[in-house]
Protein: GDP-D-glucose phosphorylase 1
Organism: Bacteroides uniformis str. 3978 T3 ii
Amino acid sequence: MNQTIHHLLTGQLASWETARNNYAALSGVRVKELNVNGILYKVQFNPARIVSSGAKVDAKSILERKCFLCPANLPPVQKGIPFGGHYNILVNPFPIFPRHLTVPELAHTPQRIATRFTDMLELAEALTDYTIFYNGPKCGASAPDHAHFQAGNKGFMPIEKDWRGQTAGKIADYRKAALWYLDDAPRATLVIESTSKEDAADLFDIIYRSLDVKPEEDEPMMNVLVLYEADRWVVFVFPREKHRPACYTAEGEANLLSSPASVDLGGVFITPVEKDFLKITAEDVAQILSEVCLSATDFHKVRQRIREKI
């Protein structure tokens, strides 16, 4: 499957000007590194991502636009690879990663993870060169009305290789799986490690049921990363408190266009505006994370609930 994806990517870059230009622009993307309470974060200045970071995801705006993930609305030049009978693997024309995919459901149905987590595990197992990610409908998804995953080439996000050195403890062993939590505040991170797809899915379900669902919402707020290597799945679950930090709508100097999603929580903060890239500090990143992630107290409660359910 990795080879098939490679052919899709090279073919799309040859035939699709928008994608070609945006991937070429990645070579000029600027990156800086910040140390946030001992955890490495990268900050990427990526102007093309204004499309996503600045996306209007309120109900009215969504109703007024055509869904850009529905097959009928894709540009004629955009080609895909079927997956799992009801997904389409597409090249993302507004990349963060050198290889960036979007994997929408064929049908127009809301962004929800509960019934799709096993699909995510299967996608990770098929695309071993990629980390798969899910942004909840109010956790960075720019199409909250259309179910989809994304995928980016492995090794891009610091958490992928750094997490083992950040473990605070093991919450539980569960058959062929283990559930860890990280010492990475103000981020709140749970990590499932499993050689069994079923056990990983069961553990995820326990996590899901241990998280609060906010009023007016259909699922707990979260971002999820999944990768498959050395015959095991590694799943990162980032429970969320809030969609966007206060700085997103602040006036004047306090304004910073940061709408954190899976990649940001994985350790690569995306700044589509140059002034934000230049001024953002480790303190800013810590403040943003402290607003959008669970507090230490709430994260402790979640871990207690998980232990009780296991």
User: Anything to note?
Assistant: The chain has a mean pLDDT of 94. The longest strand covers residues 167-174. The two ends are 35 Å apart (CA to CA). The chain is about 30% helix and 25% strand.
